[in-house]
Amino acid sequence: RGRLEVEASMYSAIEKKAEGFAAKIPLRPELEDIKDGIGLTVLPLERDGKFLPKLVGKGGSTRKRLIAITDCSLEYVGKSAYLVGSQAERTLMMALLKAMQESDDNWIK
């Protein structure tokens, strides 16, 4: 799990330095959507990342709350969310991210 979290955070750091570069790097095939155990899921954000500031929150507060609720690691790389955790954790995180992008206000407390 730790290795996947570091890999996702490195993709995020690369993307901040060279926009659009990290999104072009292909994931290792063994990482993509592992059903049992710990895995990594790449979730494209809706409307080309329009809601990214809402999903991050002031000082990363919303991102931290999402991580605390789901116990799933979350990194934003360009216009995608990289999720690291068990299948159940990633499924919950995907549902919360989808609901937040569709809602009118920030309802995660």
Describe what you observe in this structure.
This protein has 109 residues and is an alpha+beta fold. It is built from 4 helices and 3 strands, in the order H-E-H-H-E-E-H. It has helices at 2-17, 52-56, 61-70, 87-102; strands at 38-44, 73-77, 80-86. A 3-stranded antiparallel beta sheet has the order 1-3-2. It is globular and about 35 Å long. The mean pLDDT is 85.
| Rg (C-alpha, Å) | 13 Å
The residue ranges in which pLDDT falls below 50 over 5 or more consecutive positions are: none
* Shape label: globular
Q: How would a textbook summarize the main sheet?
A: 3 strands, antiparallel
Q: What is the end-to-end distance?
A: 27 Å
Percentage of β-strand residues:
15-25%
Oligomer: single chain
Could you estimate the helical fraction of the residues in percent? 40-55%
The number of helical segments is 4
